[in-house]
Specification:
Length: about 80
C-alpha cells in the first residue's frame, strides 16, 4: 500500500499527539521530531482539526491534542 506524504504526515501527527496526552503538542515540536517541513505539517494539522480528529488551540499555551471521541457526525 502506498501513502501520500500528506497521509503519512497525518498519521505521524496523530500518533505523536496521542503519545503525549498530558500536554499539547506544538507543530514546531512535531516537525523537528520527524524532521519534516513545518509548513506541510501546518496544512496537515489544519485538515485534521477541521475533520475533528484533533483539537487545536492558538496562543501562548496552545497546541494540538487528539479529540476525546473522534470526529462527531451530525445527521
Amino acid at each position: 500500500m502506498r501513502l501520500t506524504s500528506f497521509t503519512d504526515y497525518a498519521l505521524r501527527l496523530l500518533i505523536y499527539a496521542a503519545g503525549h496526552p498530558e500536554s499539547r503538542v506544538t507543530i514546531e515540536e512535531a516537525a523537528s521530531y520527524f524532521d519534516i517541513s513545518r509548513g506541510h505539517l501546518k496544512k496537515v494539522a489544519m485538515a485534521l482539526s477541521h475533520a475533528g480528529f484533533i483539537d487545536s488551540m492558538k496562543g501562548r499555551s496552545g497546541g494540538l491534542s487528539p479529540t476525546r471521541y473522534g470526529p462527531q457526525r451530525t445527521p
